[in-house]
Specification:
alpha+beta, 28% helix, binds zinc ion
Length: 131
C-alpha cells in the first residue's frame, strides 16, 4: 500500500500548477478504508494565495467527509534533493488534522525516501489543547 500511495503522490505531482516557481509537489493521503486522495501545489499570480500540495490533499479528504482518525499515511513527492519537507504552515495544519504519529513519506524523483510524522515535524506544536 505504501508503494501505491507514493505512486499516487508522483501522479498528482504532474497536475501541479506552478508557472512561477516550477517547483512541483505531489501529495497523497491514504485513508483507513483504502481510498487515496491526491493533492498538488497550486500557485497564483497573487503569490500568497498559493496552496501547498499536502494541504490540498488533506483538505480534500476532509471535504469528502473524512476525519483525523481516518487518515493513516501521507506521501509528499518532489523533484528536488533532498526531498522537499512541508513548510511551516503545512506542519501546523498536519499537526492538527492528521494523527500525530501518522507516517509521512517524503520522496523524490531520485528514489530517496524519508519517513517522518507530524509530531517530528512540529515538536511542541500548537493545538486546540493549547487554547
Ligand atoms: Zn506548505
Amino acid at each position: 500500500m505504501k508503494e501505491k500511495l507514493i505512486n499516487a503522490a508522483f501522479a498528482a505531482q504532474k497536475n501541479a500548477y506552478v508557472p512561477y516557481s516550477k517547483f512541483k509537489i505531489g501529495a497523497a493521503v491514504l485513508l483507513r478504508d483504502g481510498k487515496i486522495i491526491q493533492g498538488a501545489n497550486i500557485e497564483n499570480a497573487s503569490y500568497s494565495l498559493t496552496m501547498c500540495g499536502e494541504r490540498n490533499a488533506v483538505y480534500r479528504a476532509y471535504c469528502e467527509g473524512y476525519k483525523k482518525d481516518d487518515i493513516v499515511a501521507l506521501a509528499i513527492s518532489s523533484n528536488c534533493r533532498p526531498a522537499a519537507t512541508p513548510c511551516g504552515a503545512c506542519r501546523q495544519v498536519l499537526y492538527e488534522l492528521i494523527p500525530e504519529n501518522t507516517p509521512i513519506y517524503l520522496v523524490n524523483s531520485y528514489g530517496d525516501e524519508i519517513e517522518t510524522t507530524p509530531k517530528e515535524l512540529l515538536p511542541c506544536g500548537f493545538s486546540k489543547e493549547s487554547l
